Amino acid sequence: MTTDTKQRILGSARRMVQARGYNALSFREIAKEVGIKSAGVHHHFPTKGDLGAALARQYTEEAVTLLHDLLERFDNEQLTLERYASIFRSALVQDNRMCLCGIMAAEHHDLPAEVRVEVDHFTEVNVDWLFKVLSLREDGRDAESIKRHALAIFAAIEGAQLVARGRGDVSVFDATVQAYRSTGLFA
Predict the structure, then answer these.
(1) Where are the domains of the chain?
(2) What mean pLDDT do residues 77-83 have?
(3) Architecture field, domain 48-183
(4) Which of 69, 86, 140, 150 has the fewest CB atoms nearer than 10 Å to its CB?
């Protein structure tokens, strides 16, 4: 088994989870899509929890890179937050998919502990990044207030994505994000 096979397994599993959630993750379906036996999937990921944790970890690592790049290109808070929202929007445009960790978070109680840790880490990465962006504003707010605002933005974006996905209409996401702007949640 090669690293390429492992990445193909992760790719198949990611599409499956983003479309139908963690509970729909099936080693048999992954093996069929990748063109290997189920034992081949188990070779790389002995348990569903191992696979779920690897998926969430990989997704978070990709997010860290994207967020770092966004902060490096920081022009102003509003543009940076618009770029941030567009990352979540892009999942909807790609076959009406959800943020991988967002859809897994909706199944939090069904997740093995190792998967919950990775999903929670994704949330922490996003909230910490939003905290950094919001901290660039010099408005005299204390760190706790900024942290709450960062969490509110993250929850709002994930929620907008979920509602838009449920409606099968990306314009719902766009309208919701615009409403966030007009109410002051976004800059």
Answers:
(1) 48-183
(2) 92
(3) Orthogonal Bundle (1.10)
(4) 140
